[in-house]
Amino acid sequence: MWNQRYAADEFAYGTEPNSFLVQNAKILIGPVLSLAEGEGRNAVFLASLGLDVLGVDGSEVGLAKAQKLAASRGLAIRTEVADLATYEPPPNCFGSVISISAHLPSDVRKRLYPLVERSLKPGGMILFEAYTKAQATRNTGGPKDPDMLMDRVDLENEFPNCETILCQEIEREVIEGKFHTGLASVVQFIARKH
Ligand SMILES: C[S@@+](CC[C@H](N)C(=O)[O-])C[C@H]1O[C@@H](n2cnc3c(N)ncnc32)[C@H](O)[C@@H]1O
Questions:
Q1: How far, rounded to the nearest angstrom, does the alpha carbon of residue 109 sit from its chain's CA centroid?
Q2: C-alpha 146 – ligand 1 centre gap (Å)
Q3: 137 CA to centre of own chain
Q4: Checking DSSP bridges between strand 94-100 and strand 120-131, what pairing results, if any?
Q5: How far away, in angstroms, is 110 Cα from ligand 1 center?
Q6: DSSP conformation class of 133
Q7: CA atoms of 43 and 137, how far apart (whole Å)
Q8: Which of 9, 75, 112, 116 could form a disulfide with 70 if both were Cys (CB 3.0 to 4.6 A apart)?
Q9: What b/e string do you get for 46-71 counting C-beta neighbours within 10 Å, with b at 16 or more?
């Protein structure tokens, strides 16, 4: 489904980075692991700040576009095609992990997130933005399956070895390509590993 979505020349979520990421990028430490990076808009933005970024995604079509986007701007990013249901990030390796609109079933999150937390060095940062369960009734983007939508309490519980810096559910305009198109309910989460 994702390879199909990314097959068009157009970028499904645009080439501009996610605005929550832009607002908070200064707190990120490299190297950065970007979960479900897609077509590269966020990895390329972080690379433009001088950060070393590894974008992981299940779609080889998306990551090929990510590499092209980086090259078109004279930037380098690392990419890895992997299914997050089985992916094992190396321990104690990353300065930050980001996850933007990376909606996974709860059983996948349950396996992956402890590994994500373990992959951070002490003091490493987590930055997530995702649609909440309230988004299921809107037609402005995101999956409809409530199991793939996230909330504040889930996120805080899923990273028990991190200190929460920001954890809020808000409504905001998300305009990112033709699939994220207006007022949306999102959860925003920033935390630091102890
Ligand atoms: C809504 S897109 C967001 C892409 C990117 N984070 C962005 O903000 O532009 C969701 C991404 O999750 C990826 N994805 C979904 N399930 C996955 C899985 N099990 N393993 C790896 N990637 C997955 C898709 O390939 C897709 O690129």
A1: 13
A2: 17
A3: 22
A4: parallel
A5: 17
A6: G
A7: 30
A8: 75
A9: bbeeebebbbbbbbebbbbbbbebbe
Q: Is the CB–ligand 1 distance for residue 46 below 6 Å?
A: no
Give the Å distance between the CA of 166 and the centre of ligand 1: 23
Q: Residue 189: CB within 6 Å of ligand 1?
A: no
> If we measure between CA atoms, which residue out of 7, 192, 189 comes closest to residue 101?
189
pLDDT score of 177: 87
Quote the CA–CA distance of 102 and 124 in Å, as a whole number: 20
- What is residue 10's DSSP assignment? S
Please report the atom of ligand 1 found closest to the CA of residue 82.
21
Alpha-carbon distance of 181 to 28, in angstroms, equals: 27
Ligand 1 pocket residue status of 17, Cβ below 6 Å: no
- Check if 118 has its Cβ closer than 6 Å to any atom of ligand 1: no
For 63-68, the CB contacts below 8 A with 24+ separation are: 63/37, 65/6, 65/11, 65/39, 65/40, 66/37, 66/38, 66/39, 66/40, 67/40, 68/40
Q: How far apart are CA 63 and CA 73, in angstroms?
A: 15
The pLDDT tens digits for 102-148 are 999 999 999 999 999 999 999 999 999 999 999 999 999 899 999 99
